[in-house]
Amino acid sequence: MGNFALSTLASIFAIMNPIANVPIFLALTANQSQTEKRILARRSTLIAFFIVLFFAVFGQIILKILGITLNAFRIAGGILLFFIAFNLLQGKTSKVHDPNQDEHEESMVKEDLAIVPLATPILAGPGTITTVMVLSGGYSSIFTGTLIVILATLAVLVVTFFLFYHALWVQKHLPQTTINLITRMMGLLLTVIAVQMAATGLSGLFPILR
């Protein structure tokens, strides 16, 4: 259980990448006051938690309804995470988690930054949802696995909230080069996780590969 918990925590931290999201948070909230920034930090992390909670709890049910096996989902998830990791290795934000210009402008007009794009897709985007669904169903006990995933997500989002809440201080004391280095490290870790996820799915679908 300990190894699974550590692996889960590392996986969710890598895919959410809280430190690298600080500059994005500051860019999106550039016209907001310090008080408004902190309100957005609290709301976005709380909403992201409930999004992840939903898919962690009901993810396996959704897969069964759609007739999708966990192993097939692992392969698809591994491919998705690999492309996200590839961008992170280059010190870039993933297109999956980073809103495009149209989405950015629309969110600014609607003033719903806490929901879109902060909660989703930046924090609880496709990569995060895929990761928690695979992890919650990958442990011997689905209940225990889901509980560990939820607690790990909560821990990462607490760190994210702290970083967003003190975003200006973090930006002042953490150079962009350091953030880029951390992003690449997260990308490397996520690449390994993606390959392992896909490999597990392949061996599950095709036992002859074991």
Main sheet properties: none
Share of helical residues? over 70%
Find the count of extended strands (DSSP E, 2+ residues): 0
The shape, in one word, is globular
- What does the average pLDDT come to? 90
- Oligomer state equals single chain
> What is the helix/strand order?
HHHHHHHHHH
Q: How much of the sequence is in beta strands?
A: under 5%
Number of folding domains? 1
Decide which structural class fits the backbone: mainly alpha
Distance between the termini: 23 Å
Q: Could you tell me the radius of gyration in angstroms?
A: 17 Å
State the helix count.
10
Unreliable stretches, pLDDT < 50, 5 or more residues?
Answer: none
Supply database-style keywords:
210 residues; mainly alpha; 10 helices; globular
Task: Provide an overview of this structure.
By secondary structure, the chain is mostly helical. It has one domain. It has ten helices and no strands. Helix 1 crosses helix 10 (176-205). It starts with a helix and ends in a 5-residue tail after the last helix.
Layout of strands and helices, then pairs:
Elements: H1 2-16, H2 18-28, H3 34-66, H4 70-89, H5 101-110, H6 114-123, H7 126-137, H8 142-165, H9 167-173, H10 176-205
Helix pairs in contact: 1-7, 1-8, 1-10, 2-8, 2-9, 3-6, 3-7, 3-8, 4-7, 4-10, 7-8
